[in-house]
Amino acid sequence: MTTDDAAPITLYRLQGCPYCERVVRVLDELDLEYHSRFVEPLHSRRNAVKRVAGVRTVPVVVDDETGVTMAESANIVSYLERTYGEGET
Amino acid sequence: MVDFDVVDLGPTDHVSVGETASDFTRPLVTDEGWEDRSFADAAGSPTVLVFTTMAGAFLAEYTLTELWDRGIGVGESTAIDDGATRTESAADSGTLTALADATVLAVSISSPYELAPFLREHDLPYGVFSDPSNAVAESYGVVHDLDGMTGVAEPRPAIFVLDGDRTIEYAWVATEWPDFPDYDELEAVLDDR
Q1: Where is the Thioredoxin domain (chain B) (predicted)?
Q2: Cis amide linkage into residue B11, ω under 30° from 0
Q3: Is B36's CB within 8 Å of A52's CB?
Q4: Cβ–Cβ of B32/A47 closer than 8 Å?
Q5: Cα distance from A73 to chain B (closest Cα, Å)?
Q6: Chain A, chain B: beta-carbon pairs less than 8 Å apart
Q7: Which residue is closest to A14 within chain B, CA to CA?
Q8: In what order do the strands lie in the sheet with B25-29?
Q9: Residues B166, B138: Cα–Cα separation, whole Å
Q10: Alpha helices in B39-169, H assignment, sequence order
């Protein structure tokens, strides 16, 4: 579900970025609604990401439900699984 | 104008004043990136919807830079809302509010990879919907089959002014190729609202 303007999770991503696809896979597995924001391929031009996350790397996830903004795919995956996965407490 | 006949585009069956403009969802491109957005979600009151050529053609450049030079739609970020600070708006002078408050959104068949550099190069704060299939132009009745480019169609240059309910208040559609909008008339429409 990538076309919902109002989805609580925004994913900053690049086309063809395997780290981004890794996060997409987990979002899909957890059946989470999210909104994709594609950003500039050139690292130095990724100010849109820098403004929200303080870094220019992707993926970055912004979760309006929890107020979490997070970079690094491994961190994001474990955050998503911890927050929305089976082990949710 | 030139002293020979320009290409007549013939009649068109476009949506007209009083009708409700249909909604659509396409990647909305700014100078920094793109994301799927519905037109209804991105639109303001009023909205200036500009159908234009591929990024790179002079019509797209001249039309959008003319709107910018006239201070139309420069009042706020029109597209991806992520706290970006746009170029200081001409509205700061305090005299252009009616024009500045309009939301300018364009439609082109160019891909986001062409539109983002195009917007950046001309320092344009506008959002452009990327519609390679030209289906949005089809639904508005403003298709232009480019002579000499088999398999490629793009919008006929057109400008619509819509109110907050997407009711069409003003419609201009090119009847010649090339043709430019009547910017003074457009300004008057926005001023008189």
Answers
A1: 15-193
A2: no
A3: no
A4: yes
A5: 20
A6: 40
A7: B33
A8: A68-71, A60-63, A9-13, A34-39, B33-38, B25-29, B127-130, B103-108, B47-51, B158-162, B168-173
A9: 17
A10: 39-42, 58-69, 97-100, 112-121, 135-140
Give CA–CA dist A37/A55, Å, rounded: 15
At A89, which amino acid appears? T
User: A51–B80: do the CB atoms touch at under 8 Å?
Assistant: no
Alpha-helix runs per DSSP H in chain B: 39-42, 58-69, 97-100, 112-121, 135-140, 183-191
Mean pLDDT, chain B, rounded, equals 89
Q: What values do phi and psi take at A76, rounded to 5?
A: -65, -45
- Give the residue carrying structure tokens 């989805």: A7
Map residue B99 onto helix, strand or coil. Answer: helix
**Cα–Cα distance, B77 to A20 (Å, whole number):** 27
Beta bridge partners of A16: none
Report which of A31, A66, A69 is spatially closest to residue A58, judged by C-alpha positions.
A69
Cα-based angle B40, B158, B99 (whole degrees, multiple of 5): 65
| Pairing label, strands A68-71, B176-177 | unpaired
Q: Which of B180, B186, B67 is nearest to B125 (CA)?
A: B67
User: How would you classify the pairing of strands B127-130 and B143-145?
Assistant: unpaired
| Token digits of residue B111 | 């891909």
- Span of A4-8, B20-24, B52-56, B182-186 with lowest mean pLDDT: A4-8
Question: How many Cβ atoms from other residues are within 10 Å of residue B15's Cβ?
Answer: 18
Q: How far apart are CA B135 and CA B23, in angstroms?
A: 12
ipTM exceeds 0.90, yes or no: no
| Token pair belonging to B61 | 């450049």
Q: Provide the whole-model pTM.
A: 0.88
pLDDT in tens, B75-95: 864 456 554 444 444 445 455
